Amino acid sequence: MTPAAIALGRPLAPGWRLLLGGLVLILLALLLAGALSIPWLFPSKTLWYRFGLDRLLLRGGKMLGLAAACLLLLQPLLAARLHLLDRLAGLPWLFRRHRHGGLLLALLALGHPFLVLDLGTLGTLRLTAKLWPEALGLLLLTSILVMAAVARWRLAWGLAFHRWWPLHRLGAVAVLALLFGHVLTVSDSFAAGPPRLAALAALATVVPVLAGSWLRRLGRRPCRVRAVTPAGPDTCTIELVPEGRRTFAYLPGQFAFLSCQSRAVSAEEHPFTIASSPLRPACLLFTIRACGDWTRTVPKLAAGERVALEGPFGRFSHLVYLQARELVMIAGGIGITPMLAMLRHLADTGDRRPITLVWSVRRREDLLFPEEWPRLGQRLPGFRFLPHHSRPQPGAAEPGRRLDRAILAQHLAPCHREAEVFLCGPPAMMAEVRGILAGLGFARRHIHDEAFSL
Asked: Rounded to whole angstroms, how far apart are CA atoms 57 and 114?
């Protein structure tokens, strides 16, 4: 299999990515500007009887609500796993923007009624049939706040992902239905003309995206489990064989969503790095550490059982940065899996560039695939493997220490400061190491990280 054969997984070339990304941002800016202009170009009758500050506040409240509506329409696009957007920005980045957008949406939606409504008369207001558009708005606001709060504090409340995620997706459909019901009925600005057509066009755009994200489950790539083997303490490797004649195209370092069809493992989706080299398409490898209820059941998968894949996703790959003359990889714990995929591919292609891998684990026995690292060193002339143990080793004279500035400065002293740096590990570790790397002179634009979870 040649590098050209994995082109289906390749993100966009830098020039095309810059062009398309700029066009997307311009389009979003134009849509937002058009929405915010509606209270000025198509004022509702309520603005006819307001003057001075009252009129300004009412118009500002309408603009705030329209900004919240635009952001709400953008949310499903960010979370729909659209491959074009993944190639532009990477799915982890899109999911982070989705989370941040949810919090901003809650703030905008909360501020909208305080500017639109006359709070002084709320105490004397009686709910009647005529106020059902406002009642929809109240239900919409409540739903947005509840969804944002649950998403933000789900872990603290002990709500498992596989229970929360289907409810979150159903809630998104309900919120969008409430949004269009409220917008199209609460203001005569949307009774006819361009505003109503724009709202219906937005509905016609979002509904297919939501439907596609649900129907995509039918198009996932089926695979069979060849074997499940131990890879280290609380860690195993799943070997999958794609069914059919078409190979699963991906870049080394990308990930896919797995859904198991097994008696012992539940069927909810989880993202994992594809740890194998795409130049060996006969088998796909996923190395998974037991760090939760679902991952603890993965070793119970039996040979012959089916696993469905959706992907590949992500931009965390050395093949995205073909101009790189040197590669630096820094991993923490199970964050080694995308690095291992890249190293396996580099070895398969006979790469001779300088490559440095710093891998921090708690103990020596936490090093996965100990027999493979010497072989990679033999196949990669420029490869330096620098394992680091953060816990004290038995019989060692020195105490353990985390991966700090002094250790990284020593390990990375021979590395060029314009090298492409790949960083994957726990969030706290990645945040600290990014700051250390910048302080050591590595260019921030050349530092690429990958989150453990989406």
From this structure: 9
CB atoms within 10 A of CB 370: 11
pLDDT in tens, 108-141: 999 998 888 765 555 555 666 677 888 899 999 9
Whether 282 contacts 239, CB under 8 Å: no
Residue 90 gets which letter from DSSP? -
Please report which helix (H) or strand (E) contains residue 327, including its range: strand 327-332
Tokens of 109: 């939606």
pTM of the model as a whole = 0.86
Q: How many CA atoms lie within 13 A of 339 on its CB side?
A: 30
What pLDDT, in 10s, does the model give residues 358-401? Answer: 999 988 888 899 899 999 999 999 999 999 988 766 655 455 67
Q: Considering only CA atoms, which of 341, 411, 352 is closest in space to residue 383?
A: 352
- Determine the average pLDDT of the residues in 27-35: 94
> Angle CA(75)–CA(164)–CA(79) in degrees, nearest 5?
20
In terms of Cα–Cα distance, which of 264, 320, 258, 266 is closest to 285?
258
Tell me the C-alpha distance between 75 and 94, whole Å.
Answer: 10
- Take residue 123 and report the two structure tokens written for it: 């105490």
- Tell me the CB-side half-sphere exposure of residue 413, using CA atoms within 13 A: 5
Question: CB under 8 Å to 289, separation ≥6 — which residues?
Answer: 234, 235, 295, 333, 334
Q: Determine whether 394 is exposed, middle or buried from the number of CB atoms within 10 Å of its CB (0-12, 13-18, 19+).
A: exposed
Give the side-chain half-sphere CA count within 13 A for 282: 1
Sorted by sequence, the CB contacts under 8 Å of residue 351 that are 6+ apart come out as: 380, 382
In this structure, what are the phi and psi dihedrals at residue 23, rounded to the nearest 5 degrees?
Answer: -65, -40
Q: Is the CB of residue 228 less than 8 Å from the CB of residue 99?
A: no
- Looking up tokens 């064989």 gives 241
Q: Which backbone phi and psi does 285 adopt, to 5 degrees?
A: -110, 135
Q: Which residues of 37-60 are buried (b: 16+ CB within 10 A; e: fewer)?
A: ebbeebbbebbeeeeeeeeeebbe
Peptide bond preceding 195: is omega within 30 degrees of 0, i.e. cis?
no
Distance (Å, whole) CA 317 – CA 280: 17
Largest Cα separation within the chain, whole Å, is: 83
CA–CA separation, 433 and 338 (whole Å): 17
The per-residue pLDDT of the chain, averaged, comes to 87
| Total Cβ atoms within 10 A of residue 161 | 17
